[in-house]
Design brief:
This protein has helices at 16-23, 31-49, 144-159, 175-181, and strands at 2-7, 56-62, 70-71, 78-87, 93-95, 102-104, 109-111, 127-133. It is of the alpha+beta class. The longest helix is centred in the N-terminal third of the chain and has 19 residues, at 31-49.
Length: 189
């Protein structure tokens, strides 16, 4: 199963002002750099946890329906299935009623009896599901420990930009960030 981002979050988990206050930066000369670090830190935390911090939409592509009817996209937290389609033998998409799917929010699984869904007509990428995931639309919806992980990464990268430590890359994630995000990691089985 592959996934591509369709709609990125509209805001970041930290504002530029919040990041500057945390960094104790009082000038505006580095605003562009700090804004880029905010987005990069959010992306890094999302990649490490497989959790969307803020609401975003992803497209999942599958070759076939799982036999047990349970799709585990490894994107969390799931909110809803926004659209579903199968492609016929000619590559024409056929819409599927999203009401056929049940989103198990606690388990991070999309469920539907495989026998109730139309079979794709092409053997590769014959199924597409658009899913909405994320903790919510506002920075306050993001768990504070994950927001602090973003802050800590921003500070680490800002304070060490352009440097290479002996024997260790400054780009590596600090152990404190790894500890903060550990409980939120979505495991791949």
């Amino acid at each position: 199963m592959s996934a591509i981002l369709l709609k990125a979050p509209e805001i970041e988990p930290l504002s530029l002002l919040e990041a500057k206050q945390f960094l104790r930066v009082e000038h505006d000369a580095d605003d562009t750099v700090i804004a880029a670090l905010i987005a990069a830190a959010r992306g890094h935390v999302e990649a490490q946890t497989r959790c969307a911090l803020l609401t975003q939409t992803w497209r999942l592509s599958l070759d076939c329906w799982p036999g047990d009817g349970r799709i585990a996209p490894r994107l969390a937290p799931l909110q809803q299935v926004a659209a579903a389609r199968v492609f016929d033998g000619g590559g024409v998409p056929q819409q599927i009623d999203v009401g056929r799917f049940v989103v198990d929010l606690a388990g991070g699984v999309i469920a539907a009896p495989a026998w109730s869904l139309p079979l794709p007509g092409r053997p590769v990428g014959g199924i597409e599901l658009d899913v909405v995931c994320g903790f919510g639309n506002a920075p306050s919806d993001v768990p504070e420990v994950l927001r602090h992980a973003v802050r800590t990464l921003i500070a680490h990268w800002y304070e060490n930009r352009g440097l290479t430590a002996i024997g260790q890359s400054v780009a590596m994630m600090p152990a404190s960030v790894a500890a903060m995000i550990g409980a939120y990691r979505v495991r791949a089985l």
